[in-house]
């Protein structure tokens, strides 16, 4: 099916034959109607975009106005190595050209602007919004706007530093079916928004909660307090990060051992993405995307 039709075309059926055999023609039809927005393109997001474009998503809109840097070149395989073709193009524009080559049947677009500058109506144009490379406040605001849209918009955030990463998912009111023996059961999950999820007191979290979760919150808070961009920390900031960790653990009544100094040192020392880990996390994000509410409803 194309974006406007109800049936898969012969060309699409032939191209996506193997995955149709896995998840069926109806799922492929829904996938080809999905409109996805991505903000911030690093290695993990590049992997995600590649996966959904190859799978035959309806359309993909990219936003990333940053110029090319050596760090971005090392982690984003969508950026061509030939500097002669850059010509002042942004990351989104270069990635757009590469993704179109991966699958010419998928419509790939570029928008310009800061994440906070887009209104509710803009976010309402999409079925899925994926956000990266921005502050907690920017993620919170984007999530709020997705929830205010006239239709349900699935919201994801992803962050990867060194060999560590995390994904947040908000599918709002998620209804799905599962089979138990010969019976089909209707299920309903109500997801918390981004702010509510991160506002849960640390002491109330499961005792097996990953220590990475707490470490990421410390780094995130440090960047926010210092007015830094996401990932803008270095070895020189370690002493202040450790001081903030102590303050947060005290305020949250959490033993400091839950946020190891060695883990914080690692995250501060190297904020770049480790490509193999980016591929894994991007792949996981893609799998979550395929199984999200718009795809299984």
UniProtKB/TrEMBL annotation:
Keywords: Acetylation, Ligase, Nucleus, Ubl conjugation pathway
GO molecular function annotations of the record: SUMO activating enzyme activity
Pathways involved: Protein modification; protein sumoylation
Subcellular location: Nucleus
Entry's transmembrane regions: none
Domain spans labelled THIF-type NAD/FAD binding fold: 16-154
Domain of life per record: Eukaryota
InterPro entries (UniProt xref): ThiF/MoeB/HesA, ThiF_NAD_FAD-bd, Ubiquitin-activating_enz
GO annotations of cellular component type: nucleus
Record note on quaternary structure: Heterodimer of SAE1A or SAE1B and SAE2. The complex binds SUMO proteins via SAE2.
Protein family according to the UniProt entry: Belongs to the ubiquitin-activating E1 family.
Official protein name in the record: Ubiquitin-like 1-activating enzyme E1A
Gene name for this UniProt entry: 25502012
